[in-house]
Design a protein that fits this description.
Number of domains: 2
CATH architecture of the largest domain: Beta Barrel
Number of helices: 5
Shape: globular
CATH superfamily of the largest domain: TonB-dependent receptor, beta-barrel domain
CATH class of the largest domain: Mainly Beta
Oligomer: single chain
Number of strands: 42
């Protein structure tokens, strides 16, 4: 095995680089933990010369038109494999998102169901329909907007694509896409069973089995049950499980080589989540006073069928059919307290008691047909091409039951029906220019039509033509370095504020507020232009992989969430700001120092701005222009650094430090989270049959926020406006055990 040269000069250069970092870091918003982590990483880096080389395994991204190596894809992409997820004790997508740069999520539910990429993405959904900014795909099943389904059962890898996916995915991927791939059936029989235990009465149990069913058919099935009491103690009810987790996931996959030219893959998903929701406290602690805790339930049945036909000499034909049926129930105790809270105190008589509950029945059907050129089918012998058609139809029926602040109505209901259709045509051309340059041009035209109706008489039918695409240039600067430039355009369809208008009228809000929302009954399409310059390299005989991306995103007609608050009365609506910008840097590196030692570091820097966005300010009861302010859920920096060391005889240890800067919770108020650093670690043992590990997350027990509101909800303070937070998980630790049958 080749070794690297070692001399005093290389060590001196490493120490000098560390000194420069210490000097420059004074001028950037990096934390002490990030500096310490970078120092440790740099010290090891400076000593690299004396260590053996070990090749980093190639990672294949499956969410492009054809599978491609992560280092060869001209875009900013993170891939987290199943082994890394298990090392963190992760059972849901929210448990690993902090490991990727410029990725954030918001809770406001039992799970972090809403994702933001580069500061763009929804943070909640209450009444009105929402057009997502971040797509979510599981085994070719589109579950966008159904983040509760993103459990990590039998996962092979999670791919996070940042930036608009205007050609491949269209309207549901303005900010990017999360693609979850589960394990495929194996060529030989394999099976495992697993179980885990953790703090807060957390446990899971499950397993998987797969292999050949005949010489042309392979299958795999996996099941898991997750349970936890959650991290909230309800002092009024004397319970510690009102914010509990109770999730059951079942996956099945069949692969059939029907003939020499036809391959079929059938994937199915069933999720039954019966989670509680009691996440907020009047005192901003993990102790609730709710007398009617809420729920966050989801039952999803979904399936996809992918057919790949290679019967033509000039093209491969692919067809994907998918169907999703979800029943969702989301509800909460709106007053976060109990009747009698103010008895015998100055606030006696100021209390209110309210609940809010949403039941949605959502069905979606998707058909996609595309042709991909073969080697012999390339235009002029060189130009690879893709052509496709896409159709999606979604129906969502909403039934809401809530407390109406009207003395003549004890319990109020609201219902709506929303139908949306998307028809798209897309294409892509890829042309080499010499041996080192490749140019790709793609485009997509999409027809969007929707029909919204509700019981308050609002009937709106928005429709429009949308377009997006991308242009990229790849340059092989050397055999180990690829530099790329990318220009991409994304879009997100407009929508309707039907409930917001109806609620403003029925709650007898001021005429000025009703008029304000009437002018915003419909909001416009948002578009995004993304400029990106990147570098991807593999160095020292493929022991060091690094990826760097610089991006600037110009947003037009930004869709932002606004609120009007008046004590317990509030109305949420979506409005368009004129424009805004999101720009920054993403850097990821993985260094296999030697066969048993790996180092990794990820860093995201982000700067955002809003222009011309007017909201109702809760403190002054007046309109305020938020121009120039940063966008919500867009931290200025985010990092994850760590190392894994494999000892002899299957023992290993892993440590990670992740951190995130403060960020605004909303575009309509100025409350912010606190910046934080979390320490995660695991130790374990692996053999051919056994996997055992002890893991811990947030070992320093840091309090940090994942959702925040600003309004008056505490009668003891006579409903003075203040910030309320939902906290992320505290210190958690546990043990996992997996046994592979041979």
């Amino acid at each position: 095995m080749k070794t690297l040269p070692t001399d005093t000069m290389s060590i001196t250069r490493g120490c000098a680089a560390l000194s420069r970092f210490k000097y420059y870091s004074r001028y950037f918003p990096v934390t002490r933990s990030l500096r310490l982590a970078t120092l440790v990483f740099g010290l090891v880096f400076s000593q690299m010369a004396i260590l053996e080389e070990a090749v980093v395994e190639e990672v294949i991204v499956t969410s492009s038109f054809v599978p491609v190596g992560l280092q060869d894809l001209p875009a900013s992409v993170s891939v987290i494999d199943g082994e890394a997820a298990r090392a963190r004790g992760a059972v849901h997508l929210q448990d690993i998102l902090n490991a990727a740069p410029n990725v954030n999520f918001s809770a406001g539910a039992s799970r972090g169901r809403f994702i933001q990429l580069r500061g763009i993405g929804e943070r909640s959904q209450f009444v009105d329909p929402v057009n997502p900014s971040v797509g979510l795909i599981i085994d070719d099943i589109d579950v966008t907007g159904l983040g509760g389904a993103a459990t990590l059962l039998d996962v092979q890898q999670v791919e996070i694509l940042r930036g608009p996916q205007g050609t491949r995915y269209g309207a549901n991927a303005l900010a990017g896409l999360v693609n979850i791939r589960t394990q495929d059936p194996s060529d030989t029989l394999e099976a495992y069973t697993e179980a885990g235990w953790g703090r807060y009465d957390t446990w899971y149990a499950g397993g998987a089995v797969g292999g050949p069913l005949s010489h042309t058919l392979k299958g795999r099935i996996a099941w898991r049950q997750n349970r936890s009491d959650g991290y909230v103690r309800n002092d009024f009810l004397g319970r510690d499980d009102t914010n509990n987790i109770d999730e059951q996931t079942l996956r099945a996959k069949l692969q059939w080589q029907a003939s020499d030219t036809l391959a079929l893959t059938f994937s199915s998903l069933y999720l039954n989540a019966d989670n509680g929701y009691d996440g907020f406290s009047l005192d901003n602690t993990r102790h609730s006073l709710s007398d009617e805790p809420g729920q966050d339930r989801q039952e999803t049945s979904a399936a996809s069928l992918k057919a790949e036909w290679q019967g033509l000499s000039f093209a491969t034909i692919e067809a994907i059919f998918s169907y999703t049926n979800s029943n969702l129930e989301y509800g909460y105790d709106e007053d976060w307290s109990y009747t009698g809270l103010c008895a015998g105190t100055p606030c006696d008589g100021w209390e209110y008691s309210s609940t809010d509950n949403y039941q949605r029945d959502r069905k979606s059907r998707r058909v996609e047909l595309r042709a991909l050129s073969t080697e012999s089918g390339r235009l002029f012998g060189q130009t690879a091409w893709v052509a496709g058609i896409y159709y999606d139809r979604e129906n969502t029926d909403l039934a809401r039951q809530f407390t109406q602040f009207n003395p003549f109505i004890e319990n109020a209901t609201f219902s709506s029906d929303y139908e949306a259709e998307n028809l798209a045509f897309y294409g892509q051309l890829s042309q080499p220019l010499g041996e080192r340059i490749n140019v790709t041009l793609g485009g997509r035209w999409e027809r969007f039509e929707a029909d919204y109706r509700d019981e308050l008489g609002v009937n709106v039918k928005p429709d429009e033509d949308l377009w997006g695409g991308q242009f990229s240039v790849e340059y092989l600067a050397s055999d180990t370095t690829m530099i790329y430039g990318l220009l991409s355009r994304g879009y997100k369809a407009g929508g309707v504020n039907g409930d917001a208008l109806g609620k403003a009228k029925t709650q007898a809000l001021p005429i000025s507020v009703v008029s304000f929302i009437e002018q915003r009954l419909e909001y416009d399409t948002e578009t995004l232009l993304n400029w990106e310059l990147g570098l991807k390299g593999s160095y020292w005989n493929d022991t060091l992989m690094t990826r760097l991306a610089l991006f600037y995103m110009d947003r037009k007609d930004i869709q932002l969430q606004g609120w009007y608050n008046d004590g317990p009365l509030f109305v949420g609506y979506t409005d368009n700001a004129s424009d805004g910008s999101n720009y920054g840097i993403e850097w990821e590196t993985h260094w296999q120092v030697r066969e048993n030692l790996a180092l990794f570091a990820n860093l995201g820097l982000l700067n955002t701005k809003i222009d011309d966005f007017v909201v109702n300010d809760a403190d002054c009861a007046c309109l305020v222009d938020k121009s120039g302010r940063q966008q919500a859920h867009a931290p200025a920096y985010q990092f994850n650094v760590g190392a894994q060391y494999d000892f002899a005889r299957g023992l290993f240890a892993r440590i990670e430090i992740e951190g995130k800067d403060e960020f605004y919770f909303s575009d309509s108020h100025d409350q912010q989270s606190r910046r934080f650093e979390l320490f995660n670690a695991s130790v374990g043992y692996r053999s051919q049959q056994w996997e055992m590990s002890l893991w811990g997350r947030n070992l320093s027990n840091k309090d940090y926020e994942v959702r925040g509101f600003y309004f008056g909800n505490d009668p003891r303070k006579f409903y003075a406006n203040e910030a309320y937070y939902q906290f992320g998980e505290p210190r958690v630790f546990g043990a996992d055990l997996r046994y592979h049958f041979l």
